[in-house]
Structures are given as C-alpha cells and as structure tokens.
Amino acid sequence: MKRYIKKITMAFMAGALIWSATGCTNSFEEINQDPDNATNVPNGNLLAYVIYYTSYRFNDRWFAMDEPMTFCGYAAKMSYIDESRYSYRTNIQDNNWEYVYRILNNVMDLQGRATSGSNLLNVAKVMEVTVMQVATDRWRDVPYSDAVKMSEGILTPKYDKQEDIYPALLAKLKEAADGFASNEGTDDISDGDLLFGGDITKWQKYCNSLRLRLAIRISEVSPELAQSTVEEVLGDPSRYPIMDSNDDNAFFWWQGSDSNFFEPIADQYRTRKTEYCASDVMVDNLLAANDPRIGIYFTPTPASQTEGDDDYTDGTPVYRGYTIGASSNAVSKLYSVWNYKYGQDLGGFSPWMRVAEVYFHIAEAAMLNYDTGSYGTAAANYEKAVRFSMVENEVSDADAAEYLENGGKFDNTLKKIWYEEWVAMFKQAMEGWSLYRRTGVPENNYIAPGRPAQYANHNVPPLRSPYPSTELNLNAANNAPYNAEVVDNLWGKPMWWDTREGVY
Length: 504
Hints:
Elements: H1 43-57, H2 61-65, H3 68-71, E1 75-77, H4 90-113, H5 119-139, H6 162-182, H7 200-217, H8 223-235, E2 250-253, H9 264-271, E3 276-278, H10 280-288, H11 294-297, H12 340-344, E4 349-353, H13 355-367, H14 378-392, H15 397-405, H16 414-424, H17 429-439, H18 469-474, H19 476-483, E5 486-487, E6 491-492
Antiparallel strand pairs: 1-3, 2-4, 5-6
C-alpha cells in the first residue's frame, strides 16, 4: 500500500546541517556558528533531515541515474551520455562523497543525542549502516572507524578495508536488532520519521532485512559470518522479524506538489525528456520472458517505427531500449522511456529496500544449504518474491501465475534468483549495480561501446567510483595506499564480495 509521507515541514531548517566531509565533528560548538541559524535542533527535525537527505542524495541523477543505473543495465542515456561512457565529472564525485559523510555526521549526532535503549538510538544505528553500506559498495575501502570525529581531534581519518567494514556493519545491525527486540524503547519518533511514520516494527523489520542483504552479499567471501547471520535472523522470527508484505517496503514517498520536494528522477524528466530512456539490456530481457511488468516500468514508443522509418501509420506501439553508453545520441522518439510510476510521478517514491529483495535473499540462502527454518525452500521463497514484485507493480494474479509457469519459471539455479532479483529491484541504483558486480547478472549487460579510448582495454562496466579529489588532496597520506589499487579511475581492485573471474 502506498504511504505518502507529507510531513516535510521543516525540519530542514536543521541548523545541525553542518558540513562534514570525512573528518567533521558532531557539533562545531564555537568553531563555526552561524548567527542566523539555530545551533541546537530538535531531534525530530534532525531525524527528518537525515531521512530526507538520504532519500534525495542517494537517488538523484548524479548519484544514481547517470552511473549506477546505467552500469547495471537499468537505464540508458539518449543525450549527455558522458557518465554512462565513463567520462565522469570530478566535482560530482567530490559532491557524492561529501553527501555520504554529511549524512553520516548527522546520523552520529543523532546517536550522541539518543538515550540508551531508545528507539531513536536503534533507528540511528540502522541509518548508520544504510549510509555506510552505500559508501563501501561505491568506493570499497573508505573511512569508517575514524570518520566524523573532528571533536576527538581526528582531522584526517584512516581508511578501513571493506573486509573489516562489512563485519562491523553486521555487528551494528545486530546491536540495533537486539535493541528493538528488548522493547525498552518508549520514545515516539513519529515527528521526524519520514520513512515509516514512527512505526518501530517497520524499522525492526527493515533492520533484520538489511542483515540478510549484507550477509548474502558476503556469502562467498565470509561464508561462516553470512550463514550464522542468516540462520540467526530466520531461526527466530518473533525476535528478528523481517519484511513480510509490500506494506513493509522502505519507500520514501515525495510530497510532489512543491518543487522543493519532487521525486528526483521525475523532476529530471520534467525538464529533460530526451535524456534518459529504457536500456536495451532491460527491455530485451523483459520481452524475452514476456514479463508483464514491462508496461509498468516503461512506455512503448510512439509507434512501431524502427531506425530509418518515417512511417507512423500502423500505430502499433513497441518497447525498445537504447544502447547503454552509445557512441552517438539517439533519436528519442524511437525509444521507450521510464513509465509514470518509476520515472514521471513527481509524488513518486525513492526505494531503500523491498520485501521482494528479502525473499530472494532467503531463496539464495536455501540454495546455499543454510537453515532457513520455517521460511522453507528456495523454490517457495523465489515464487513468493516474484509474486511480491508483481503485486507491487499491480500485475494481476492470473498474469503473475502465467509468468511463473513460463518466462519466470524457477529452474533451481542461483542465476534465475539473481535475474529476478535484478528485475524486481528496478530503480534501486546501488543495489542493482552491486548485484551485477557480485553475480554477473544480467548476463547480457556489456561495457559501453562509446567509452573513451583510454578505457578500451576493460571488458566490464566499472567496478567502483573514483576517490574524490578532496581526499587525494586533503587526506593524501591515508588515501594513497588505497588509491594506488585503483586502475583507470573506475576499475582496479574489485569489491571484496566481487568474486567474478576474468573481469577487468
């Protein structure tokens, strides 16, 4: 069920919006006070800001659409194709890094304000993991244990390896999960909770579902930690509940009638209708499987015109995706664009996590012979996950059943689980990119044909984002050993959990 959170009352005067970079403090005290802004902001305002800013910055064109969504096969660009050809903008990389640590700074401020055992503390811990998972999945090795500690005199934070960050994030989620399970929290966070409206059970489910995401991601490189985490969560549903319906989806719904609070992708489409479109990777897969979600994800072309045709007379619409990172601009009328729900609704949603994703993780766990307890077999959870996606996209039960009997029929392979997970997570930029990097699915994804000559020797889309120039200049001593492992800015040492062979 859609939940439009319209309490974007601001909250965003939050004077706690302090600049953070990686070495910022939880409060500048007298260091940098603005006499025109408040220096002490209510907790509800700060929580609202953190949720809003995370939703906006992690889902705008610069952080999501231009790079991760094209790298993983969700989107193509018909014009201004540079980023999907891997010609990135240095200032955008600097900004993206800053946004991550600005959010983290405010999250840690929330934790410092929260009382022991409170709902606010547990929620802030989950937010810490939400932010840092994105950071490490984008840049691999990043400041974490030393980050945002200027008040402790740490101006140039050390870097932590992804191999150490993931276990730390799982430990943090375990703290939050046990905190929620203790039922000690009595504080009402609804004034600032723009994600779940103060429903602590939904935060609890999101927390435990995140534990499954992180555990499955490292299942090939840290199998013991992955298995123990999954089995702990699935073995005690009453203590560690997970998302179990689309009503639990972690979606940020945009206000939509105020230009300051338009859904970011729709806002971009509003003024640049010929820039983004469906990718051939996505459209070709959906057509091959006769997937009923295609009409929800994309619009058909104005008619059945093909390249070189000028005849629109037969009026038969078709779905057609453009080349990702093409060498030249497209004729926009020939290609499908994102449909209303996903790309044109100014009051639409930015997805953090879906229930469908959770049950694909359980299906994968069953395939790995983990004890999934009462949740059952891989086939059962796969089908449940696909049906959750169909319901989310308002596909009829009959069409969903037909799909599961044909193009979506489970073939008892991990690749089938991964493929359907990729389809179901449409619009989740970082998760789609991470799934592709971990599994190589979708298998028809490819490296951009229009990439610069300097990247001609690579055979897959980028493995990472480049470190920002601010870190190269201001934190050089700590950054240098890690930057030395980067090749051609976007490749080099793969993510810890990326075990694909022969990719470079």
